[in-house]
Amino acid sequence: MNVQTVLVSMLPEHLLLAGLCLVLVLDILGRAPRTSFALALGTVVAAAAAAAVLSAGGYAAATFVGQLSVSPATSAGKAIVLVLAVPVLMLSRDEFRDAQFPMLALASLYGACLMISADSFLTLLLGLETLSLPVYALVLLAMQRKDCAEAALKYLVLGGTATGMLLMGASLLFGWSGTLAIDAFARALDAPSALARAGAALVLCAFFLKAAIFPFHAWAPDAYQGGSVPATAYMATIVKAAVLLAVVRLFGAAELSPAMIALVAVPPLVSIVWGNITAMRQPSFRRMIAYSSIAHAGFLFFALLGAVEGRFQAIAFYLAAYGLMSLVAFTALPHDGDDAVDDRIDSLKGLFHRRPYAAVTLAIAMLSLAGIPPLPGFVAKFLVFRNVMAAGHTELAVLGLVGSYLGLYFYLRVIQYMFMAAHPYGATQAALRRHAFAASLVCLVPVALLTVFPGWALGLLRG
Asked: Most-buried pick from 64, 215, 220, 306 (CB within 10 A)?
């Protein structure tokens, strides 16, 4: 083991760990409330910059042979996750003044980075649990919501079930291949052995659970609704991005057999349709975003059907576009003190007359999530369907495209409420949240770049 290789290749992880330790020490000394936020934010920015530099420089190394390695694609994935974490931390500052949220977020991000670089199921499991365990506590931090404990418990049960399925699938793959390397999953996709296919199916279903793919989605909306806005934003963006990037690493350059095509295609396709249809009926904004995220997770898994050479690029761009626009939506939500009332979609009526900037940014987010050109969401969906058609799955691409149109209704309904409906009687002028406003600006800058220069961004994401 080369010490220099370990230090350089895992620089983002080292920075996150150092920041976490410093926040813990400051908390013990009683100084964390004043400095933990700034320290955590600086740590995440530094880690994101380190990952971006490693990716742009084409750095590749086997940090721990057979367990963990780094490539330009994995570093680009880490950079995406860490960049998305910056506005989440900024958003959290308006609701949490102590060190709990920054500590939990840094610990979870460390696990996300481990997942993305994992070469074995042992490292993958370690990263997955390090990512997930702090998130259960993040949901519990929303003590102003009466259902936060129930939401955390349901999310814990979902996470525990996913872990059990992953372990069972990995054990079956180990029994078939004699190795815990994750490339056993890719080899099992077209293997004739029933044991290999069963193991691959269980592993894939574990990630379906983590990403809330139909029919494993049932409690995910409850967890989203019960958490605070920053915790929900974290689950909807960071967790989903880390899970999908780990799935891309699992599949590698593997071609799908006809039997596996059905498994990879049908649940995501149903998720697209079900998520969009169910989102139409939701009175809660967070719950609507939860079902919207189920549909978007369907698109992301749908991209696995595409041509191998464009698979990482399509998923990485989609994660960046979806994550940024979701965070813009969360930063624009009104905050008048009553969390339950603020979460209702009805509270957005007449928002343009009360907070024009928030209404405009939220409208941009809704249009992009709906896939309206020229916004990044359109480019992301175009990449997915183009790659699926290039792989010869034209019929599936058409079905997915039809399913995507179902989401137009509830996205446009939000816009109609903000610009065309009269604001409710007695609605007050919401106070400007400085950190949420700053977080929205941080998101809109890369959104503008992705809109104007999508080719430049795609060139950086060639995996």
From this structure: 220
Q: How many angstroms separate the CA atoms of 195 and 250, rounded? A: 18
User: 307 and 387 in contact (C-beta within 8 Å)?
Assistant: yes
Residue 338: per-residue pLDDT: 61
- The answer to whether the CB of 197 falls within 8 A of the CB of 104 is no
Cβ contact 296:212 at 8 Å: no
Q: Give just the sign of the alpha carbon dihedral 265, 266, 271, 274.
A: positive
C-alpha 256/C-alpha 263 separation (Å) is 10
The CA distances from residue 168 to 118, 246, 293, in Å, are 18, 18, 27
What confidence tens digit (pLDDT) does each residue in 41-95 have?
Answer: 999 999 999 999 998 888 888 888 888 889 899 999 999 999 999 999 988 887 7
Residue 1: inside a domain: no
Q: Is residue 150 in some structural domain?
A: no
Q: How many domains are there within the chain? A: 1
Amino acid (one-letter) located at 20: L
Residues linked to residue 181 through DSSP beta bridges, in sequence order = 120
> What single letter denotes the amino acid at residue 342?
D
Q: Answer yes or no: is 210 within a domain.
A: no
DSSP conformation letters of 191-203: -S-HHHHHHHHHH
Q: Annotate 129-154 with b (16+ C-beta within 10 A) or e (fewer).
A: bbbbebbbbbbbbbeebeebebbbbb
Residue-range definition of the domain harbouring residue 411 = 255-463
Tokens encoding 213: 């793919």
What single-letter amino acid sits at 413?
R
Cα separation of 20 and 123, whole Å? 20
Contact 181, 199 (CB under 8 A): no
